[in-house]
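Aim 2 progress update. The chain analyzed this quarter is reproduced below.
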Amino acid sequence: MKAFGREKIHIRPQVLAVLIFLALVAVSAVILGEDKMVIAVQDDLDLFQAEYADLRNTGTFFSQGAVSSELGGVTRDAMPTELSLTALIYMIFPPFPAYIAVYILKVLISVFSFGLLSCELYGYGDKTAGAGLSAGFLYGILNLFPAYGIAFASVPLAVYFFIRLVNTGRKRYLLCLFLYPFVSYLSYLGLFILMWAFVFWVILSVRRRKPELKMLAGVICLGAGYVCFEYRLVRLTVTGPESIRSLFTWPDMSLVEALGESLDVFLKGQMHSDAAVTFFVLPLCAIYLIYIIFRKMRPSGGGPEEGISGRNFPGGSGEDHTDEKASGKYLTAESVFLVSAAMIAVNSVIYGMQDIKAVRDLVWGIFPFMSSLQFDRAVFLNPFLWYLAFLSVMLSVRREAVRNLMAALAALMILLHPGTYNDILNTAKQQALEVLTEKEGGSLTYGEFYDTEMFCAIREDLGYNGEWCVCYGLYPAELNYNGFRTLDGYLGFYPLEYKERFREVIKPALDMNPWAREYYDGWGARCVLFSGTGQNIWSGERRFDIEDSNIYIDTEALKAMDCRWLFSRYRLENAEETGLYGERVYSGKAPYSVYVYGLDPGDED
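Predicted structure tokens:
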């Protein structure tokens, strides 16, 4: 069969494996459904899933000047852009099917783009295509930040476009780079793709002793694309009111402590970008690095590997490879591995350096916009770089059976890696527990968390008509997903003035609870009600007990914000003394009740 319109190569085993895996995912999602699938709550169900549902419920994907249903009506510009493939999927499908569709699509994008990149780097043939598809599958099934799964998966595509642009000079790749942000995200990945593209432009220009104008044009087109596709984020950053990020409290570590953070993220990754490399991929890469070093030390060493010669990107002779078959010049696995490893190390060091105040002040002084976007997110590129390095390791192995075994073991390590966003593993564990022991699992399922039937019943019983609400022990996202408007919420970019106003509501709890005071004042992305005891009161677990059933809020300040209803996961012992009326109790799919209190005496039963 033909691969990517090039030479005939046989890649059916890898393609078949990908299709079988995705078919199993789709069938499992259909069979289990919302009520049995365990989806990560942190930064997933409690954040982006609810935001997309809210945009769908209110029909405000494309609206200008609209407001959202959280944080008292924060601007629509603070929500995800509508000019993205992920948003398009959520426009078409309801939230749960959309979530599954995004997962399937991100795997397909990763496999396709990694396969393209592999062949472009190493030449078109069975070995490179097969190994590239395997690496793409591994990268695609990584349990990275779900809301930006497609953005992570498409990173190899950006690299491919840059390489094709430099090697062919064809203008269509400028258009591809301009349109690329449709499958990417500026804050998490785009800034750092641009950063490294600029670095490689400098390297190419120095080595060729003249400005590499094609590469520079690509960087400009990509940057322009991000500005256009992420116009809401750009507009909010440039013209919006002062945000909560201006008062974020950052660590002030010593150099040794910061380098310790760098080493830790190098070895273990970071929650949103956990590459699951610690116990298999990283050791193999370390062995391969040692092998390279010993080869280079040998008097006759250092030559290109058999079967893979060297295309000179980045830093080549400046040849314009318009005909790949004729040029025959491709990169060595060693060179790609060493570049990838160096970039991983640099990104990890950047991650640690943000925890040094002097470094932050310097960077934010030169690039003020970075204070809102965090330069430690450079490590979000590391998962791609790890599996690009692992691709080099696989290509250094001659026997296909061994390469396939390496890929299979790496896939097994990923699927069994207990990361925050491993929905497949978490669902399988809970289902196995319930089937084998007939005991209830500990985690809320997707259907239990949002419980649309119960919240629909609450809406009807309250005669709800858009009044403002707050939550205690529940996530505001649960209400936003179901069409309620909340004064509280979880958002990393909203006006500082609103944070200070909401602080008056929770001041009694903050005065009693040093942990909550530091958490809110030093960060504040979770603008929610807190316990007065220091205990966390929200949880994605089915059963969760608290020490103190009293609530500590300034009810008058809450009324001043036009709040009408308070939703609680716990029965509040001091509801009457606090000025809460008419306790109503509702039950649904979750093994706990939801208590709703009014702030108007007329709500008394």
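Confidence is low (pLDDT under 50) at residues 1-6, 301-328. Residues 95-122 form the longest helix (28 residues). These observations will guide the mutagenesis experiments scheduled for the next reporting period.
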